[in-house]
From TrEMBL:
Belongs to the copine family. InterPro entries: C2_dom, C2_domain_sf, C2B_Copine, Copine, Copine_C, VWF_A, vWFA_dom_sf. It comes from Oncorhynchus tshawytscha. It is found in: Cell membrane; Cytoplasm; Nucleus. GO terms for cellular component: cytoplasm; nucleus; plasma membrane. One of its GO terms (biological process) is cellular response to calcium ion. Its main location: membrane. This is C2 domain-containing protein. Residues 1-88, 91-217 form the C2 domain. It holds the Pfam family C2.
């Protein structure tokens, strides 16, 4: 019973699993329905490993199963060749081909289908049928490729399948007139699934199933159709609903900038906030390097940018959560360049002060993340990027704020600039131990990533961004899984 595991190979041959297919029962030529999704970074050599196992036991542990073989390649090769087949390196066996398809996911539309069947052919001798559906799309080469497989509905000729959602680009490459073949099978435990029938359609045709209007497709078995003149069909597949929407998941990015006195007078060259003749400093470099990556995952590219630790005009009171554009009702900046511009304009109008308190700005973002919890789906995830130069003054309050924030859809990225002692930041990172509040409460997950800018001063900005964002995808997916949340399917009218 073959199953395939996909992994990403990092430095020193470390493997990070990216997914596992379903198990194909008693099948030497399996066609897996599960897809592996990997972000493609042009500037990196991204190695992939595909391993095949024969599942003999009811266990999720790979060592419990027989290893059949593996193949290692780069994602760049997959993207360049688009369709690839390779023999697996197997000892002592000699099997197996793997087909990989690479897609550029530029279309963010999703399609949700609700289907049922009526009077399907009876295939089981002692029962009815155990029907399921397979959706295949036609490639440019004319070949059909499996896109989605529904669940099996036991012992019925009138199945009702659960609604399912797939990216439109996966179903038809974003082409609503591309042919889609739907096959119906009767599931058998021995893997010899019986073919019931099939039909072809397009997204354009299926889109007619709206506003309580259902579409019926005759399920045709071509062999039976040729043999019997009286043959009509092998049942009816009914499309009850078809909805094509925009996938509205978004990453809400918020920037927090340290304006405490320990940074030095921004008018003096020794200050970390001093803007050199090239128009840059470590704060701006960090904002641009990280922001240019994460802004691609923000739907509107409007970023709230906040400052802390400075005295503000006209009364010169200290604030630890002020809008750097001085508009508290609309602290948003247009893109990363907008943040950089607001930062440069802000500098001469504030007085650097202190202390270096993190908890107010973390709590500020947590309030918005708490509001996101009221939604039924995981529509928003908040990322707070804090750029700072020194030791935290309110460590106990910050630890408590982070522990509470770990329950919310948010992550915290801290970039340390300058040459200060960042031991406290590394403690908050939580990679070596679980972070605890002063009350003793443990963080339910690690949401902090700390990176010292000095380690990347002479490195390409892509290297800094890669290190800073390394843990973010895992933190996002971990939160969704813990909360049992699904991606947002909000319609874009």
């Amino acid at each position: 019973m073959p199953a395939c595991l996909g992994s990403v190979l990092l430095r020193q041959a470390e493997c990070v699993p990216i997914g596992r297919t379903e198990t194909a029962v008693n099948n030497l030529n399996p066609v897996f329905g599960v897809k592996f999704k990997v972000d493609y970074h042009f500037e990196e050599v991204q190695k992939l490993k595909f391993a095949l196992f024969d599942e003999d036991k009811c266990s999720s542990q790979l060592y419990e199963h027989d290893f059949l073989g593996e193949y290692i390649c780069t994602l760049g090769v997959v993207c360049y060749m688009s369709h690839c087949s390779w023999s697996l390196s197997v000892t002592p066996f000699c099997i197996c081909l793997s087909l990989i398809t690479a897609l550029e996911l530029s279309d963010n539309r999703i399609i949700t289908l609700t289907l049922c069947g009526r009077k399907l052919d009876k295939k089981d001798f002692f029962g009815k049928s155990d029907p399921y559906l397979e959706f295949h799309k036609q490639g440019d080469d004319g070949k059909w490729m499996l896109v989605h497989r529904t669940e099996v509905i036991k012992n019925t000729l009138d199945p009702v399948w659960k609604p399912f959602t797939v990216p439109l680009i996966s179903l038809c490459n974003g082409d609503v007139d591309r042919s889609i073949k739907v096959l119906c099978y009767d599931y058998d435990n021995d893997g010899g699934h019986d073919f019931i029938g099939e039909f072809q359609t397009t997204v354009n045709k299926m889109s007619e199933a709206q506003n309580s209007l259902e579409i019926e497709f005759e399920c045709i078995n071509p062999k039976k159709q040729k043999k019997k003149k009286s043959y009509k069909n092998s049942g009816i597949i009914i499309l009850k609903s078809c909805k094509v929407n925009q996938d509205t998941k978004s990453l809400i990015d918020i920037v927090g900038i340290d304006f405490t006195a320990s940074n030095g007078n921004p008018r003096e060259a020794s200050s970390l906030h001093f803007i050199n003749p090239l128009g840059s400093n470590e704060y701006l470099s960090a904002i641009l390097a990280v922001g240019q990556i994460i802004q691609d995952y923000d739907t509107d590219k409007m970023f709230p940018a906040l400052g802390f630790g400075a005295q503000l005009p006209p009364d010169w009171k200290v604030s630890h959560e002020f809008a750097i554009n001085f508009d508290p009702t609309n602290p948003f900046c247009q893109g990363v360049e907008g943040i950089a511009q607001a930062y440069s304009v802000c500098l001469p109008h504030i007085r650097f002060y202190g202390p270096t308190n993190f908890s107010p700005i973390i709590t500020h973002v947590a309030r918005f993340a708490t509001q996101a919890l009221q939604q039924e789906t995981a529509a928003q995830y908040f990322t707070l990027l804090i750029i700072t130069d020194g030791v935290i003054s309110d460590m106990d309050e910050t630890r408590h704020a982070i522990v509470q924030a770990a329950k919310l859809p948010m992550s915290i990225i801290i970039i340390g600039v300058g040459n200060a002692d960042f031991a406290a930041m590394e403690f908050l990172d939580g990679d070596s131990s679980v972070l605890r509040s002063y009350t003793g409460e443990e963080a339910v997950r690690d949401i902090v990533q700390f990176v010292p800018f000095r380690d990347f001063r002479n490195a390409p900005k892509e290297t800094l961004a890669k290190s800073v964002l390394a843990e973010l995808p895992q933190q996002v997916t971990q939160y969704f899984k813990q909360r049992n949340l699904s991606p947002s399917n909000t319609a874009s009218e």
